[in-house]
Amino acid sequence: MVNSTETSSNIDNNLEYNKRARPIIGILVLLIGLMALIISIGLSISFGAADIKLATVWNAVLNFNPDITSHQIIREIRLPRVLGAAMVGACFAVAGALMQGMTRNPLADSGLLGLNAGAAFMLALCFAFFPGLPYMYLIMYSFLGAGLGVVIVYGVGSMSRNGLTPMRLVLAGAAVSALLGALSEGIALYFRIGQDLAFWYAGGVSGTKWINLQIMSPWIIVAMIGAIILSKSITLLSLGEEVSIGLGQNVKTIKLFGMIIVLILAGAAVSVVGAVGFVGLIVPHLTRFIVGHDYRWIIPCSIVIGGLLVVLADLAARMINPPYETPIGALISLIGVPFFLYLARKGGKEI
Amino acid sequence: MSNTYLTDTQIKIKRRNIAILFILGLLIITLFIVSMNTGFIRLSPIEVIKTLFGQGTDKQELILFEFRLPRIIISVLVGIGLAVSGCVLQGISRNALADPGILGINAGAGLAVMLFISFYPSTASVPVFLLPILAFSGAGITAIIIYTLSYKRNEGISPMRLILTGVAVAAGISSAMIVLTLRLSPEKYQFVATWLAGSIWGSNWKFVISLLPWVIVLVPIVYSKARTLNVLNLGDSRATGLGTSIEKERRILLAAAVGLAGASVSVSGGIGFVGLIGPHLARQLVGSRNQFLIPASALAGGLLVLVADTIGRVILQPSEIPAGIVVAVIGAPYFLYLLSRLKD
């Protein structure tokens, strides 16, 4: 009785939100965002320890000349780094949007699936038992760790008869994260590797190489397309499970695919840069605030805004205290927190 | 399905719940004896009882009264404080993920301690009595900031806004801590990391005295508000309809939660997981009516921390594993087991 009235009032509220989906603003956001993204990628390439003119950047991309040093710098160091930043931002943002839509919990992001904790746990094991492992292997292992975290959370969450309710998913995620977190904390204390881990965890895109991008991008592109295809179902799911089932959605399949997409996107991103977790939390809120509650708009806009945010943050991280780099995760939180506070004040009731 | 049938089941549930509370209390006492009988120097149950009644040797008295007893009492008190605080916060925010962390308690306390350590010349001579005070003020200030930021004049506090603000502020603080971490010297880092992981390091009667009043005063206050918490659970509009002055009640409950968690964290470091898991364990045992949930959370939390501290003290002798880590390692699998077994 209590439940049904609550659900119906939720439906009313949500339908009202959906009327507020704003396609024109969505298109504007996409266009302006893409332009801003391209400009900031250009800026990010041109600023740095060795300043390079924008025209040179243009030339280096279009007519690459291996004899010019600045072209070399751009090709081998700056370009992969910036593209990596954009990619990572987009991944976290979309993963976060999917998570929030599927769990209907505004606190959800990909970290809740046990991804970050799993990756960190695997890294702690690597640092403790196989010090000096090559970068590529570290990335691979942390992706495995992320996968492990998700499999445990998903497995435990869906073991019972009622299947995977959002509440159960969220609780299982929190418990698994706490467990893996505590284990890696223990390992870190025992082997005294906490600071190394913290540095990795703080996040940085400086090590991104072409080879990483080559390995990651096909998966990520497929996952992004998958996310856009799923977006309509996610919108329905965000209205509540009953509504979604009532409208003929196969909730189980949607959730399974959603999880797989989140794993690919966030797993790849976490393993490359560490836990830049706040992006996945804040960008979906921001886009929802701008374009309304239709995930068909939220997801594409999240891609653009997420990418933009991380590219700018990476640029700032290099500019603040050159030649040292400020941890990008910390920087994003620093920008993100006041903004998030503003959002929480302004809206802060809906999901 | 007459009325008598209903009351019969209610009485049954009530009896069952009272039995569960009783068993939890019994478990704590058993564990107290077990905890005495393990460790570097063992005291058998008979020796413990003898010493308690003043019949033991000087050495036994020293161990019991100066080392083990305060530590055990602190473990239990910390568990009670955090779990009750978590229970209140989950009730107020109507969010199952809420724990003292959402009010920035852990983050604030952690930052205060870390800042202090990073400016303090060496870790060897850190004044241990200053740390709890620092941690408590850090926690309190953060909670006040979060409350102020999520307060709106005409609407008061909405649970959702409170949670979002709390998460944002805590995230900001943790990122500041990451930046600080990278600048600390290795031995300072180790000190802070051990503190943050949560361990019952202050095994001293002074800490007991600094923690006990909070628990003794605030837990009964929270318990007296059990009915209000039940009503708040129904949602703001319904609670107002039932004649609760939400804002005032919520403020009292929040303040109590902050006091409990802040005092606990200041003595124990970040055993934050107890605040999340304690209430959930209790809910699986006695259901979600706060009249039983609050005492059950308190006992479950106390038991959990006591178990964790005992295991952490014994398993890697002579070095110790921080209790916070043990809590998560034993608490989380059990929690997951419950989660997979039960219908919602």
Overview features:
heterodimer, A: 351 residues, ABC transporter involved in vitamin B12 uptake, BtuC, 14 helices, B: 344 residues, mainly alpha
Q: Topology, pairings included?
A:
The complex is a heterodimer of chains A (351) and B (344).
Chain A: H1 2-19, H2 23-46, H3 54-62, H4 69-103, H5 115-129, H6 135-158, H7 166-191, H8 194-202, H9 210-237, H10 241-246, H11 251-273, H12 278-291, H13 295-320, H14 328-346
Helix pairs in contact in A: 2-3, 2-4, 2-13, 3-4, 4-9, 4-11, 4-12, 4-13, 5-6, 5-7, 6-7, 6-11, 9-11, 9-13, 12-13, 12-14, 13-14
Chain B: H1 3-36, H2 45-52, H3 58-93, H4 105-119, H5 130-149, E1 151-152, E2 156-157, H6 159-183, H7 186-197, H8 205-224, H9 226-232, H10 236-241, H11 246-268, H12 273-286, H13 290-314, H14 323-341
Antiparallel strand pairs in B: 1-2
How would you describe this structure to a colleague?
The complex is a heterodimer of chains A (351) and B (344). Chain A has helices spanning 2-19, 23-46, 54-62, 69-103, 115-129, 135-158, 166-191, 194-202, 210-237, 241-246, 251-273, 278-291, 295-320, 328-346. With 351 residues, chain A is mainly alpha-helical. Chain A has a single domain (6-64, 80-346), classed as ABC transporter involved in vitamin B12 uptake, BtuC (Orthogonal Bundle), CATH 1.10.3470. Residues 1-12 and 14-19 of chain A have low confidence and may be disordered. Chain B is mostly helical and 344 residues long. Chain B has one domain (3-341): Orthogonal Bundle (ABC transporter involved in vitamin B12 uptake, BtuC), CATH 1.10.3470.10. Chain B has helices at 3-36, 45-52, 58-93, 105-119, 130-149, 159-183, 186-197, 205-224, 226-232, 236-241, 246-268, 273-286, 290-314, 323-341, and strands spanning 151-152, 156-157. In chain B, strand 1 and strand 2 (156-157) form a beta hairpin. Chain B is globular. Chain B starts with a helix and ends with a helix. Chains A and B meet through helix 7, helix 8 and helix 14 of A and helix 6, helix 7, helix 12 and helix 14 of B.
